[in-house]
Amino acid sequence: MLSIRKLLGLDRPREVLSSSDTDTVRRIVNELEALPPEQARYIAAFAFVLNRVARADLEISAVETARMESIVVSYGGLSAAQAVLVVEIARAQGNLLGGTEDYVVTREFKKLATREQRQHLLHCLFEVSAADESISVAEEELIRQIASELEFAHADYIAARSAYSTKRAVLKGLPGGQ
């Protein structure tokens, strides 16, 4: 049986959970104990930021959830079952603490990731938002904000967004749009 101390993370070695970790990242890290702590911390933050974009329009669709799980499997090297767990915890934590944790977790991801990993996340954000074949204005604006939080120049954001132009809701119905 799982003890309350373990549930609260009180019986874990000090080096596993850093004092700078947010509650969201700690919760997901605890669920991924089999992974090295740094990898679990990284995946937790990555999944939470993906979820942040999925809930930008206040609804996370099944297709967005499936896309996040697929990304976490392929990018995080997790099993499908672990990915489902990570995405579900990120989703629950996002719904519960989203407003207060959004920036903090994104900032933590920025600290953990290389520039290349941050660029990969930026593309994954567009993949999640385009999963339903349309990137809403709200999703697009949130991705722009996250790109800024990850310290990307506007040109970097535009370059990433260009690969998803046919999915942008703002361009649909315009001459040359889809």
Describe the structure.
The protein has helices at 4-7, 23-31, 37-54, 62-76, 80-112, 115-129, 137-149, 154-162. The chain has eight helices and no strands. The chain has a single domain (22-168), classed as TerB-like. By secondary structure, the protein is mostly helical.
Provide the residue-averaged pLDDT: 82
Give the CATH architecture: Orthogonal Bundle
- SS-based structural class? mainly alpha
| H/E element order | HHHHHHHH
Keywords:
TerB-like; globular; 178 residues; mainly alpha; disordered N terminus
Short summary:
It is built from eight helices and no strands. By secondary structure, the chain is mostly helical. Helix 2 (23-31) runs antiparallel to helix 5, helix 3 (37-54) packs antiparallel against helix 4 and helix 6 (115-129) runs antiparallel to helix 7 (137-149).
Helices and strands in order:
Layout: H1 4-7, H2 23-31, H3 37-54, H4 62-76, H5 80-112, H6 115-129, H7 137-149, H8 154-162
Helix pairs in contact: 2-3, 2-5, 3-4, 3-5, 3-6, 3-7, 4-5, 4-6, 6-7
